Write the structure tokens for this entry.
Amino acid sequence: MAKAKATAFFCKECGYESSKWVGQCPACKEWNTMVEEPTAKRESSARGISGAGTTGLRSVQKPVKLEEVSIDEQDRISTGYQELDRVLGSGIVAGSLVLVGGDPGIGKSTLLLQVCRNLALAGRKVLYISGEESLKQIKLRANRIGTISGELLFLCETNLDDIEEAIRETKPEIVVIDSIQTMFREDVASAPGSVSQVRESTSVLMQIAKGMGIAVFIVGHVTKEGVVAGPRVLEHMVDTVLYFEGERNASYRILRGVKNRFGSTNEIGVFEMQEQGLVEVENPSEYLLSGRPEEASGAVVACSIEGTRPILLEVQALVTQTNFGMPRRTAAGTDYNRVNLLMAVLEKRCHYEMSRYDAYVNIAGGVKMNEPALDLAIVLALVSSMKDKAVNSRTIIFGEVGLSGEVRAVSMAEQRVNEAVKLGFETCILPKVSMDKMKKVTGIKLYGVNNVREAIGLI
């Protein structure tokens, strides 16, 4: 009889397995994603997900009713950072598997080491496993972020069988794996970081997390496209996916939740990279508005909502007469096509000859926002720059603009206005529909507008 084939083809996007190469994956319909990998040897061990381990007997779970499942708020573990707790959904859940991705040098390892330090100081037992750095390298980084004390253990290992044994011996509450691309299993005959190794390693860590009730953080490398390297099935297996974003040359970092089974995926956490490590920014609005020019044309303050948090930011526009037949358009931090659409509304509904001008729109601070509530601020910033007339620096503007020039309602208008009051703003231009639904707010003048013409008349 012919020997069984020792290799198979796996899809890098969804993990679909095929005995032969195909151009298009039958599962996710992506092209040229099939790679050849050695098949994993299936052990006949009877280790169950409950972590019985050495008993040799499979642990059988009995079906239960939802009424029999108890939920305790104390199951959430605070990381010591309010920004991170908000993104995770008010803390770490015992038995969860969290994937943290980001560009090289963005601060993933630094953030997790600081979290481990906070957890150890709070009396938690933590195990930090590094497959990329030696113990001396970790100590050099630890000396920079501060003193570490408590039950914080370190291990430099890439063999997942040895790591599993170390976890069962130490029995920590939180485990950090840095990174999943360096881990390997001996029974999988492919190189670390391959589709088979990443998938099998994540499966083992998931069984440890669910079976022993240990919260596991996994660091994942990203590709040049900005997604986590390895099979796409990796993000489907974990409970939470966090992306660390930001420019390496800038000091701020944004932690964004892409997937979260225990909370909202719209929350963000803002950090600042300093000499002693990452420091959380509790008031990002004040941080993004710092250094704002006074009485400068084309500068407007807007308010965007990220999850449940209102963030004030500055929208800048520069409109100059074009020297060529084709006007130039540039958008940094917002949607380029949306800027073109808003300029077409100005030309059609307000009769401004925008086709004769170059336009440059920028969100100050390097932040990327695509919320429709920024439409009215972009429109008024363009008009302010075109007429070279400054908007009052104590005025905040938000609202969605439609193709007929109407200003449409936005969500959470009252929270946006209250945030403006906290930072000392005196005037707010907002949609008339949202203003009618709001409660009375003291300390700020509200002007509701129905269309773009009314808003331009106010400034």
About this structure: Confidence is low (pLDDT under 50) at residues 43-58. The chain is about 25% helix and 25% strand. The two ends are 85 Å apart (CA to CA).
